[in-house]
Amino acid sequence: MSGPSEAIRVDKELDLSNAGRGVWLVKVPKYMANKWEKAPGNIEVGKLKIFKQSGQKTQVSLTLSDAVINIDPAEEIPRDHRLDVSVVTKQTLGVFSHAVTTTRDDPVPECEKQYMEGRIVQKLECRPYADNCYMKMKLESIRKASQPARQIKSLEKIVHNYKPVSDHKHNIEDRERKKAEGKKSREDKNAVLDMLFNAFEKHQYYNIKDLVKLTRQPISYLKEILKEVCDYNMKNPHKNMWELKKEYRHYKEDDKKEADAAKANSDSDSD
């Protein structure tokens, strides 16, 4: 038993039996195409008239049938149209189709084949005559297009709507907290220096964010003080970190070196 993908056999050869047939390519107005799409497949949609007089261009006209006009009586469209003809000379255009064959006993498609229905020899553009029906239709389309998308409507009852929150409570509180921190009063310079020295006794390097948290001072004011007592590292491994200047450093390793140096001096004096 074959699966669904194996049910259709595709014939890859293009049927060119109608390749020599001439075909017209007709462009119709949108309102006419909409009527034809609504029409059932078993009615007459219109009549085509071709009038050719010696020494003059061929005149082609199209008259829509009553069945098409009455599909939607409220939507009136022009009945009579002219077709402007232009010959295709510098292009090679064709019409193609594909068909799927079935049998009476088995509705499952058996074969899919492609056909060339003909070669386009003329282009025609269907245009309505500027009669009263056409002008009325255009006026109605302009009126609909000019209507605003939103209209003012008076309300007789109270309408309960849940409007979206423009700003959440936690966002407002966070902004107020940051604003309050930005307006903090500056501590005395000596008090800030004491906080900095205490911090640098614990660690040798700090970034500016950590120092702001430790001192709770405005960043611009803190940087002014840091420039007096600290160096800003521009190179790795402590890039973008602050460190006390040499004259302010006082670490355990330095104490050990000073003690060793003092001991060496006392030994030399005793000798």
Keywords, separated by commas or semicolons:
single chain, 271 residues, alpha+beta, Arc Repressor Mutant, subunit A, seven-stranded mixed sheet, two-stranded antiparallel ribbon, 35% helix, 24% strand, elongated, disordered N terminus
Care to describe what's here?
The protein has two domains: 12-140, no CATH class; 182-252, Winged helix-like DNA-binding domain superfamily/Winged helix DNA-binding domain (Arc Repressor Mutant, subunit A, Orthogonal Bundle), CATH 1.10.10.10. With 271 residues, it is α+β, with helices and mostly antiparallel strands. The chain is built from eight helices and nine strands. The protein is elongated, with a radius of gyration of 46 Å. The strands form two sheets. Strands 1, 2, 3, 4, 5, 6 and 7 form a seven-stranded mixed sheet that branches. The chain has helices at residues 30-38, 66-69, 132-146, 169-182, 189-202, 208-215, 219-229, 252-270, and strands at residues 9-15, 22-27, 46-51, 59-64, 80-87, 94-101, 111-128, 230-232, 242-244. 35% of the residues lie in helices and 24% in strands.
Topology, element by element:
Blueprint: E1 9-15, E2 22-27, H1 30-38, E3 46-51, E4 59-64, H2 66-69, E5 80-87, E6 94-101, E7 111-128, H3 132-146, H4 169-182, H5 189-202, H6 208-215, H7 219-229, E8 230-232, E9 242-244, H8 252-270
Parallel strand pairs: 1-7, 2-7
Antiparallel strand pairs: 3-4, 4-5, 5-7, 6-7, 8-9
Shape: elongated
Largest sheet: 7 strands, mixed
* Number of domain modules: 2
Distance N terminus to C terminus?
113 Å
Strand content: 15-25%
Helicity range: 25-40%
Give the integer mean of the pLDDT values. 81
In DSSP terms (H or I, runs of 4 or more residues), the helix count works out at 8
Count every beta strand, where a strand is a DSSP E run of 2 or more residues.
9
Rg, nearest Å: 46 Å
The structure class reads alpha+beta
* Low-confidence residue ranges: 1-5
